[in-house]
Each structure stands twice: as structure tokens, then as C-alpha cells.
Amino acid sequence: MAALTQRRRTAAAWLVHAYTASGVVLAFLMFVAVMEGDTVRALWLFLVAMVVDGTDGMLARWVQVKRHAPSFDGALLDNIVDYITYAFMPMLLLWSAGYLGEGTPATILAVIPLVASAYQFCRVDAKTDDHLFLGFPSYWNIAAFYIVVLDLQTTAVAVVLLVCAVLVFVPVGYVYPSRTSTLQSTTLALTCLWLVGYAVLVAQLPDPSTLWLTVSVAYVVYYVALSLYLTLRRPRVVPAVV
């Protein structure tokens, strides 16, 4: 009986890894949508990828994947999937759809967030001990969502992307919705509402409602405000005097 239970736990751990790996499939489908010029379909796939990414970690901790599938690095897989779906594909979408302008400037504008995110995903302190993301957490898919929904012009897009790229290197702690303990229940509830709002706004394109835009942006304001509050109250590390 014990052996059977262990096999089930091991199978559950591998199923969670497969769930995370489904993000690669979603990334390929995003690529197809972008190449076919279907921006709305790509945005729907961004939403599915966010749901997977927002739940696979909780499932991994619940089934104890490190214990029952110790030979596989699920965190590395998650980073690979997230870089493709959160950074690479959003930049490809914006570049392909013309939001970055044309020619060399557009290419440079697409590459800057990719390089910044490459740094972000490889830093050893990207996630703090108190469960915050250190530096802008490469939410380029969300940036792309608002750029499309608001139909921003190239200059505004450039400002948004460059500011966010700089924020990658600024040591502000950003809320990790499924792990940050402060106001966690409130944050999770509002995150679910934001995801619903995302779906509604995409469904309404090209004429999103002002009401749902307001609800959506209000969540972003809440998220940033809570992140700044948690950053300011974190203890400062004082260098040792030699």
C-alpha cells in the first residue's frame, strides 16, 4: 500500500511538471497567432499562460514535487516557460503588430526588454525571502495587453517599455500574488477579478468598456501601491564596517 501511495505521489508530481510544460505549447500557439496577425487570439493565449503560471507553483508545493520528483528542476522549467510567454512572445507581438514602429528603432525597442528580462530571470535574488519579486517582474505580457487595449501610439509604447526595463534594475519588491502573505486573500481575490476583466476587455476589442478598463487599472494601482508599501517597510541591510 505504501509503495502504491508513493507511486501516486510521484505521478502527481510529474503531472504538475507536465502542466508547467504546457506553457511551451501555449508559446508555440502564440507564435502561430502572431505570425497569422491574430493579435486577439495571442492575447487569449497570454491569459491562459498566466492562469497556468499562477497555479502551477501552488500545485507544485501541494504535491511536494521536490520530494517526489527530485531528479527534475521544476523551477528551471518554470523560468524557461515564463521567459518565453511573459517576455519573448509579448515583444514579438508588439513588434509584429507595428506598435514599436518600423525598422531598426523597432528592433532595438523590442530587444531592450528581452535583455533586461534575461538579467531578471538569472539573478539569484529575483525572489526575496519574504516572497516578493525584486525589480520589475517581467510582466511584459501585461504591458502588451494594455498597449493593445488602449491602442497606444509608438511614442507612448516606447516610454512604457523603457521605464519598465529600467525598473528591472531598481530594487523595489513587487507582490507575488500567490505567496506574499500581506493582504494575500485580498490580493488573490482582486487578481481573479483582474483576470476576469482581462477576458472581458479582450472580448470587447476593439471597443473596450470604460468601466472594465477602470476596474483593471485600479487593480494595477493597488498592486503597485502594496508593492511600494512592502518595499518601504522592509528592513534595510546595513553594510558591515571593516
Can you give me a brief rundown of this structure?
It is built from nine helices and two strands. It has helices spanning 2-35, 39-63, 65-68, 74-96, 103-122, 140-150, 154-167, 184-204, 210-233; strands spanning 132-134, 173-175.
Along the chain, the helix and strand elements come as: HHHHHEHHEHH
Q: Judging from the principal axes of the Cα atoms, what is the shape? A: globular
Largest sheet: 2 strands, antiparallel
Looking across the biggest beta sheet, what order are the strands in? 1-2
From the alpha-carbon coordinates, what is the Rg to the nearest angstrom?
A: 19 Å
Number of helices: 9
Roughly how much helix do the residues carry, as a percent range?
over 70%
| β-strand number | 2
Which runs of at least 5 residues are low in confidence (pLDDT < 50)? 237-242
Give the rounded overall mean pLDDT: 94
**Strand proportion:** under 5%
Quickly give the structural class. Answer: mainly alpha
What report would you give on this structure?
This protein is mainly α and 242 residues long. Helix content is 73%, strand content 2%. A two-stranded antiparallel sheet has the order 1-2. The protein starts with a helix and ends in a 9-residue tail after the last helix. The model is unreliable at 237-242 (pLDDT under 50).
